[in-house]
Give the backbone structure.
Amino acid sequence: MNHRDYEARLHACLDAGRDPLDDAELCEHLAEHAEDLAVFAALRADLHTLATLVAPTRRRRAGVRLAVTTAIATIAAGLFLLLLQLRNPAAAPVCTTTASMAAVPAATLPAPGRILAANLEEQQPRAHVAASFTVHQRLLASTSATLEIYETRSEVR
Amino acid sequence: MHQPASDATFAAFLQRVEPAVRQFLRRLCAPGDAEDVLQETLAKVWRLRGSFDARQNGDAWLMQAAFRCFCDHRRRAQRRPPTHGEPESTPAPAAPCPTELRDELQHRLAGLPPLERDLLLGFHAHGRSLRELAALHGLPLNTIKSHLHRARQRLHEENR
C-alpha cells in the first residue's frame, strides 16, 4: 500500500467511525512504515483529546437519542397497558393473593389505580436512561377494604 | 554487511529510546496497558538483539517492534472472553487528558481555518455525522470530507 492509498484508507475508517487499528492492512502498513506510525499515534491521541474538549452534556450521539426515545416509548407503553388493566377488572392482577374475598359492591371499591409520579432521568454513562414511576394500585379488596400501595420502579437501561 | 551491536551498546540504546517508546505506547494503549506492552517490547527486542544492525535507524526499528507488540496485545485482549463487568472489546485510549494536553490542542485548533476547526469539533467532539455537517455548512458531502481530511492533517502539522 503506498502512502496515498494508506491516507485514503485511514480517513475512510475515521469517517465511518471505525477504529483504524481494526483494519489489518492499515496495521500492516503502519508496522512497515515508521514515519506514518508516529503520525498516526499522534493523530489518534489528538482525536481522543478532542473528544474530551466538549462537555458531556453537549455531546449528541445517536445512541443517546435512541435510548431516550426507547425509554419514552417504553414508559408510554407501560402506562397504556396499565390503563387497559385498570379498565378491565377481570384481567389478572399484577400481584395475587390467596386470601378469600367477599364480593364487594362496585360502588364501595376504592378508586382505580393511577400513576402518582413518573420520572425520566438520564444516567451516566450516556448510554443509560433510568425511568421510574410510582403506582397506586388495588391489590386486595374485601369488606374490610384493605388496600395496598404498590410501587414499581423500572431498571436502568 | 550486518554489524551487530554489543550487549552494552544495545542496552544503552534501549535506555535512551525507552521514554519515547513509552510515550508512543501511551498514545495507543488503554490505561494500564502501555507499561505491559513496553515490557513485552523490550523483552522481545532484547531476545532479537543479535539481528539489530547498529547502522540502521534504531529508533524506527524499536517503534515498529513496539507497534507489533501492541497489535498482538490488542488481538489477545479482543479474543479473551470478557469477565463480568469488563467491556467486550479493547477500548480506545481512555486515559484522562491532562489539562496541559487539552490546552495545547485548543491552541493548535485556534490556528486552523474556521471551517476545518468546526468540522473537527463537530465530527470528533460533538458526534455529528458528515451529512449533518454538510447540511449545516451548506456544502456538498465530498467537500466536507476533503476539508475534514485536510483538518486532520493540519492538526498534526501544527504540532510539529
About this structure: The beta strands of chain A are 114-122, 129-136, 150-153. Chain A touches chain B through 34 residues (CB under 8 Å). The longest helix of chain A spans residues 62-87.
